[in-house]
Design a protein that fits this description.
The complex is a heterodimer of chains A (about 60) and B (about 250).
Chain A lengths: L1 H4 L4 H43 L3 H5 L1
Chain B lengths: L4 H5 L3 H33 L16 H25 L2 H33 L8 H21 L4 H15 L2 H11 L19 H33 L4 H11 L1
Helix pairs in contact in B: 2-8, 3-4, 3-6, 3-8, 4-5, 4-8, 5-6, 5-7
Chain lengths: ~60, ~250
């Protein structure tokens, strides 16, 4: 308990550690989220470009 | 002179994407171990400070976070510069990835500094403290870099224009570092990063340095993870990304 009280300065010490932890977690989440988003968009783009590409040889026939 | 093969491969997006994915989990594991060890040592093992009591334990956090923010800016400016001069797309991707990480760490340094300032200096914020002001400027440089990029639809143009801002703004980093030597203010002088022996007791210096290492590794872990998303985003038109995303689907 004494450890958590931090000599009566718990509000300062723990809020500083809490904010930093939150910033770290936000960055981990941000990297994952942007990566997944980029993969999703690339997948959609890949499907879209393939669907619109017409086989030119068949057209001639 | 012939450059080694791996050096050329550093410019290859699929190579870097693959290696970033392989390296990142190791950096993440090292970062978490160092963070846990450093935080435990700093919070529970290190003795209380004679003057500040327990609240000094923010010293295992605040300088490290501020330093990572500055390092992020240097990484951003150097890679943006390389991208601008040699027109290397991957270098721009690194710069863009470093920006939000640096911005969030700089904001965190300002927040933890305010929290520490209240019990020790008697104030959350001091407009006349040069280090606080230049650190705030650093945050605004990160934010203007990101805002400037967002103003362009064309990514190549955004890369080139924002690179100029990033490179010019880098002068702010040494100003932050030397601000406590050049001006007398609330911030204390250099304690660890100086030519003399660090003026910190070893039982406090050890957790301090472990946390420096922890946050440094943490930054590169986050950078590699974020870089993978940037690479996919920029290489959408290439065959390897198409194979990558279609392979995952199946």
């Amino acid at each position: 308990m004494e450890f958590l009280r931090m000599g009566g300065e718990a509000a300062y010490v723990w809020s500083a550690y809490g904010i930093t932890l939150a910033v770290l977690l936000f960055n981990v989440w941000w990297a994952r989220w942007t990566h997944r988003n980029a993969l999703d968009r690339a997948r959609a783009y890949s499907a879209e470009t393939r669907a619109t590409k017409k086989p030119t040889v068949r057209q001639v026939e | 002179m012939r450059l080694p093969r791996w050096f050329h491969l550093l410019g290859s997006p699929p190579f870097v994407y693959g290696w970033a994915g392989r390296l990142a989990p190791w950096l993440g594991a090292i970062a978490i171990v160092l963070l846990v060890v450093g935080a435990y040592w700093g919070l529970a093992v290190a003795p209380p400070d004679r003057v500040q009591g327990e609240v000094y334990r923010i010293i295992f956090l605040h300088p490290q976070v501020a330093y990572v923010g500055m390092m992020a800016y240097v990484v951003m400016a150097v890679s943006a510069g390389i991208g601008f001069i040699w027109r290397i797309k991957l270098a721009h991707a690194v710069a863009v990835t470093a920006a939000p990480i640096g911005a969030s760490f700089t904001a965190c340094a300002l927040a933890t500094g305010a929290i520490w300032g209240r019990p020790t200096w008697g104030t959350f914020w001091q407009w006349s403290d040069p280090r606080i002001m230049f650190e705030t400027l650093l945050l605004f440089l990160f934010l203007s870099y990101l805002a400037l990029r967002a103003a362009f639809d064309d990514r190549d143009k955004a890369d080139r224009v924002s690179a100029i801002l990033a490179v010019v703004g880098v002068v702010n980093v040494p100003i932050i570092h030397y601000s406590v030597i050049w001006w007398n203010s609330l911030h204390q002088g250099p304690t660890v990063m100086k030519l003399d022996k660090p003026s910190m007791a070893p039982e406090m210096l050890w957790p301090f340095l472990i946390m420096v290492a922890a946050f440094t590794v943490c930054f590169y872990w986050l950078l590699l993870n974020g870089l993978r998303g940037q690479i996919v985003e920029r290489e959408r038109d290439t065959r390897w990304v198409k194979q990558l995303v279609e392979g995952r689907k199946a």
